[in-house]
Design a protein that fits this description.
Length: about 260
């Protein structure tokens, strides 16, 4: 078997993939107070299409944010179950935080994305170079104007307002619809053959006032799997330091702190 020195984690790009880990047009942060969510009915007078268009434009101006990713059920090619981090989109993409992965058992570790490279200590305390990071979570694609959230928001079909909810202190309008599977790779982590693309149930929660930032997006890429991304603290300062990387020798049977060779 061919072995190289560049380690790689099993599957899943995102960026949400996740994919790692963003700010609003006026760079104003919102409350973070826990994960409280309350819902109310209504929103019958909301123009869902117009609100989605506003959110898409706002997402193009995001510079930094705090974000979380939660994966429930079974999602193909997604070893992640949770991400909690800070992401800077502009002037350059960088991020850091923690991630929970399931590779022969769940483990939580730290990640840092800087200078176009993902470094992570997922199975021990040794940071490993994971290249562009797509094998963990494609944070660089999350707010990419061509394939990330700005585009996803414009691809939602059958959009309908479904009430309002308060998420972490943010008053939001809930909108439901579907997005072609080919368009949600930045969130789902799965690249789909255009000929096999199917509508994916998608729900978004957008600020009811102010910048109209996307507060949460939930996609259901499989029958029993859901990926949820939540954003807050737009415009927060994100300081990332390149970690010291410990060279890892290729191995066919990785142990704690080691990585699977590419």
């Amino acid at each position: 078997m061919k072995r190289t020195s560049r380690p790689v984690l099993i599957a899943a790009s995102t960026a949400l993939a996740f994919t790692v880990a963003l700010t609003g047009c006026s760079d104003k942060g919102g409350p973070t107070g826990g994960s409280e969510t309350t819902a109310t009915a209504g929103s019958s007078n909301v123009d869902a299409s117009a609100l989605l268009a506003s959110a898409a434009e706002a997402s193009k101006k995001v510079t930094s944010t705090h974000f979380t990713v939660d994966v429930t059920g079974k999602v193909p090619n997604m070893p992640l179950s949770k991400v909690d981090g800070d992401l800077q989109v502009k002037p350059v993409t960088q991020a850091e935080g923690t991630a929970t992965v399931d590779i022969g058992g769940k483990s939580e570790g730290k990640f840092t994305f800087i200078d176009g490279t993902m470094y992570a200590a997922l199975m021990g305390d040794k940071y490993v170079d994971y290249g562009d990071g797509k094998s963990i979570y494609d944070v660089a694609s999350l707010f990419d104007e061509k394939k990330g959230i700005p585009t996803i928001l414009t691809k939602i079909s059958g959009a309908k307002a479904a009430g309002s909810e308060t998420i972490n202190g943010q008053e939001t309008t809930k909108i439901t619809g579907t997005v072609p599977a080919t368009e949600i790779a930045a969130v789902s982590g799965s690249r789909v053959d255009p000929d096999k693309s199917v509508p994916v149930p998608t729900t978004v929660w957008i600020q009811s006032s102010g910048d109209k930032q996307l507060v949460r997006i939930e996609v259901k890429p499989s029958a029993d799997g859901t990926i949820t991304l939540t954003f807050s603290q737009w415009g927060k300062k994100v300081t990332v330091t390149k970690p010291k990387v410990t060279p890892v020798e290729p191995t066919d049977n990785p142990g704690t702190g080691e990585s699977i060779p590419r």
